Structure to design on (620 residues):
């Protein structure tokens, strides 16, 4: 039955890809507090690099995502190094400008990039179901990697950098280093997602470099819950399913809905859906209380991390299982 | 050759003067509140589209423009009261909120007016001869009008009571409020003023360039670049940088291609951030 619902499978695949994009955005903006408004650059850029590598230079497609991701990580340093050593809104401004600049370059060089038409790619994985499973596996692997990075290895420095830069510097944390690290890793993961997206759609266009694409991970992370790994995934699933299931009604106003949701959530519920759920169950403190929570973690040791890791894994598996089940029941 | 040079400089100065109107507001808001108002560009685009519709309804372009400027400054005030002031302690949330509001305004334009390109019919016919170079009267009128507005704003900031309050808050918000300045009212006024200036600039720009719903971001980017080159929050730096970048842009548009405009602005941002993050304002602050 599932294989008949190719459209649903397609939507879920997209949700997985956008979940990677949103998690990566959250790694830099939710965890270290530096807002990036140009993740479209790394997403679309990853796609374009893969298109060049695969179609022009004959690089075997399976390694294209890794190369694109690495290249995007390197490119992120071009923006990151001058901006992240300063405190203030410089990263937001520069990323916004860089993404737009790259888009205008792509459109200005039609003989290389085919301009507005975009570039074609040959599919990496054939068939809807294999692609869905590949995207799910990729999403889960990256979620675990990001979880380990952000909630395990660099948990304390990231929180310190986000919550109080001066105090972090005073206690000997190299603020610039950790910001750069999270930004470059975020660009790397986004590049992989963009590359996978391009192979999946079999095309990459300047649309993937636009402000709309930069805005999407921001909305998903804010709606799901910033500063977490599960939050952006939840947000991606909610928003993609919402817009696709009501496509006929709201396709024209979907970005308006995204924007209204973003503003409403960041004003009224900065913890996102996950924060609201958490405050309902009262098990874990709200994200605003992160600083005290980190002290608690330091006291309790690794205990909490281990349980939350299991928790994340379980919720992922449960989440995708539920969605598959639901789509099966819907018979769309 | 000289004719081309003079034409390039004059059209560059005209662009620069219009950009200065946009950038000064952005810089003023940052100087006082430490907020980068990312909805600035969409406010500008909103003014253009409202003017367009009001003109179609009434047939009077001046009345349409004035109403649009008023409406946009009211929207600006609403943004400050509802979205910026209550969240002034969280820098990151402010960035997301102003970006989101900008996106909302852009999408409202897109939903209401659709994916169309518009211009506004403001024009002064005829041509003038300056330094032996023929220029259209309208461009010269635009240049003079924008410079007059900038000088007016400068006098307002330097001489009037409100202007002094604005400068006082920019220096030290707490001290200003102790001396009886109503911080909340001055902030709202600043937002209204900045939005009105952006609206005027947008309406004037829309007589030369085509506008669509997302055009606002382009001008936001230009204004952001100007404020970084001028030094974030420094009005004088923003004005000088506007004229510089206006001339650079008209030269790039002539010698290379207008398509490279955004790229040039980005390169400017990165170079300034690498060499001198305080921008032009660092030059005079460093000396004094």
């Amino acid at each position: 039955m599932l294989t008949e619902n190719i459209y649903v499978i397609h939507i879920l695949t997209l949700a997985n890809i956008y979940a990677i994009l949103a998690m990566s955005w959250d790694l830099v903006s939710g965890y270290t507090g530096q807002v990036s408004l140009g993740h479209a650059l790394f997403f679309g850029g990853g796609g374009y690099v893969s298109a060049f590598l695969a179609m022009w230079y004959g690089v075997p497609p399976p390694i294209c995502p890794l190369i694109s991701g690495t290249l995007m990580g390197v490119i992120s340093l071009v923006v990151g190094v001058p901006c992240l050593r300063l405190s203030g809104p410089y990263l937001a401004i520069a990323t916004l400008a860089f993404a737009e600049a790259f888009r205008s370059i792509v459109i200005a060089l039609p003989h290389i990039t085919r301009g507005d038409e975009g570039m074609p790619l040959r599919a990496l994985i054939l068939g809807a179901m294999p692609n869905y499973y590949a995207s799910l596996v990729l999403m889960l692997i990256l979620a675990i990697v990001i979880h380990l990075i952000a909630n395990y290895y660099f948990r304390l420095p990231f929180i310190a950098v986000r919550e109080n830069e001066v105090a972090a510097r005073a206690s000997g944390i190299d603020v610039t280093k950790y910001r750069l690290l999270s930004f470059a890793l975020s660009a790397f993961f986004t590049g992989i997602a963009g590359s996978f997206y391009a192979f999946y759609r079999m095309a990459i266009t300047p649309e993937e470099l636009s402000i709309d694409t930069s805005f999407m991970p921001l909305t998903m992370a804010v709606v799901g819950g910033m500063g977490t790994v599960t939050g952006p995934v939840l947000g991606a699933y909610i928003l993609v399913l919402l817009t696709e299931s009501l496509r006929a009604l709201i396709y024209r106003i979907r970005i308006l809905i995204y924007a209204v949701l973003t503003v409403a959530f960041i004003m009224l519920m900065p913890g996102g859906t996950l924060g609201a759920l958490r405050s309902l169950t009262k098990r874990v403190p709200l994200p605003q209380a992160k600083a005290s929570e980190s002290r608690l973690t330091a006291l309790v040791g690794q205990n909490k991390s281990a349980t939350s890791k299991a928790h994340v894994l379980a919720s992922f598996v449960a989440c995708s299982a539920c969605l598959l089940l639901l789509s099966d029941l819907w018979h769309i | 050759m000289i004719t081309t040079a003079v034409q390039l400089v004059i059209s560059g100065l005209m662009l620069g003067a219009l950009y200065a109107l946009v950038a000064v507001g952005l810089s003023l808001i940052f100087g006082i509140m430490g907020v980068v108002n990312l909805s600035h560009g969409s406010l500008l685009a909103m003014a253009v589209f409202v003017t367009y519709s009001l003109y179609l309804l009434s047939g009077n372009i001046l009345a349409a423009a004035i109403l649009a400027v008023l409406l946009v400054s009211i929207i600006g005030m609403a943004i400050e009261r509802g979205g910026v002031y209550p969240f002034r302690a969280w820098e990151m949330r402010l960035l997301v909120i102003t970006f989101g509001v900008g996106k909302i305004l852009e999408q409202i334009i897109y939903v209401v007016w659709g994916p169309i390109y518009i211009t506004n019919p403001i024009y002064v016919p005829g041509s003038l001869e300056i330094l032996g170079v023929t220029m259209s009267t309208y461009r010269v009128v635009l240049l003079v009008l924008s410079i007059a507005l900038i000088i007016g704003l400068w006098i307002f900031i330097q001489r009037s009571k409100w202007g002094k309050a604005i400068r006082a808050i920019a220096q030290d918000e707490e001290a200003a409020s102790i001396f009886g300045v109503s911080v909340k009212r001055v902030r709202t006024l600043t937002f209204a003023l900045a939005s009105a200036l952006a609206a005027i600039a947008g309406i004037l720009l829309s007589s030369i360039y085509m506008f669509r719903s997302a055009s606002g971001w382009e001008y936001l980017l230009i204004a952001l670049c100007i404020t970084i080159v001028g030094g974030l929050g420094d009005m004088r730096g923003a004005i000088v940088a506007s004229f510089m970048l206006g001339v650079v842009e008209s030269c790039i548009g002539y010698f290379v291609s207008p398509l490279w405009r955004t790229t040039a602005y980005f390169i400017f941002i990165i170079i300034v951030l690498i060499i001198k993050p305080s921008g032009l304002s660092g030059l005079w602050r460093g000396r004094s």
Chain A touches chain B at residues 29, 33, 35, 37, 78-79, 82-83, 86, 88-90, 92-94, 96-98, 100-101, 103-105, 107-108, 211, 215, 218, 222, 252-253, 255-256, 258-260, 262-263, 266-267, 270 (CB under 8 Å).
